[in-house]
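Supplementary Methods, section 5.1.

A reviewer requested that the exact input to the structure prediction be made available. We therefore reproduce it here, unchanged from the version used in the analyses.
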Amino acid sequence: MNIPFLDNWRKRHAADHSPLAAAFDRDPEGVGELLAECELLRARVQDAGVTLDDTPGSLAALDQLPPRWRDDPEELPWLGNDAGLYLGTVIVRNVPGASWQVWPGGQPVVRLASGREINVVEAGLDWAMSGSPQLSQVYGESAEF
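The structure derived from this sequence is encoded token-by-token as follows.
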């Protein structure tokens, strides 16, 4: 059956569904593992002697690092993105009922058991740029719900 307005609606909404969101629909666990990689962040903090072991204590260790990444404006957003993804990984692995979700536009967020969604990438970028909110603070607030 050919319904022109329905075809137009499908095209519009298919464009809103990012490749990450489509991959998440097919393999949420695999996408969660991909989001947990955070290669740039892991490399930078390893140089500083910090081990990222996916625990809340590692978030506190990140909060204590001198923000040398702010000296490189090209690397800053990438490191902030990784910090947010790492924050999300720690929440998902340690807060009961927390899980990754990907909005249709491709933004990964963490959904808590309460239904509250945390835009962890935004929190990571804010942390990388200004140091606030601290990653351990965001984790603590999410663990309370």
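The first strand starts at residue 99 and ends at 102. These observations are discussed further in the main text.
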